[in-house]
Amino acid sequence: MAKIKVTQIKSVIDRSERQKKTMQALGLNKINQSVEVEASPAIIGMVRKVNHLVAVESI
């Protein structure tokens, strides 16, 4: 599968608990932190739920 780089660009303060847990599940805790993950359907769905908080690049 392809890999994607997900970078947190906004804070999770004042966001719903569901969005906070989704960010934790992606492995993001701080602004400007990046993770490289496989582009599975589950990961793509999580990224779509928090797309206003993250930036995505394909690798």
Question: What attributes does this structure have?
Answer:
alpha+beta; globular; 2 helices; Ribosomal Protein L30, Chain: A; 59 residues
3D structure, described in words:
With 59 residues, the chain is an alpha+beta fold. The chain has one domain (3-58): Ribosomal protein L30/L7 (Ribosomal Protein L30, Chain: A, 2-Layer Sandwich), CATH 3.30.1390. 32% of the residues lie in helices and 27% in strands. The protein has 2 helices and 3 strands. The chain has a 3-stranded antiparallel β-sheet with strand order 2-1-3, with no helix packed on it. The radius of gyration is 10 Å and the shape is globular. The N and C termini lie close together (11 Å). The model has no long low-confidence stretch (mean pLDDT 97).
| SS elements, strand count | 3
- Give me the CATH architecture, please: 2-Layer Sandwich
- Look at the structure and give the mean pLDDT: 97
State the distance separating the first and last CA atoms.
11 Å
Characterize the overall form: globular
- Structural domain count: 1
Count of DSSP H/I helices:
2
CATH fold description: Ribosomal Protein L30, Chain: A
- List the strand order in the largest sheet: 2-1-3
- β-sheet strand percentage: 25-35%
Instruction: Indicate the percent of residues in helices.
Output: 25-40%
The CATH class is identified as: Alpha Beta
CATH superfamily: Ribosomal protein L30/L7
Low-confidence stretches: none
Structural class of the helix and strand makeup? alpha+beta
Rg computed from alpha carbons, rounded to a whole number of angstroms:
10 Å
Helix and strand succession? EHEHE
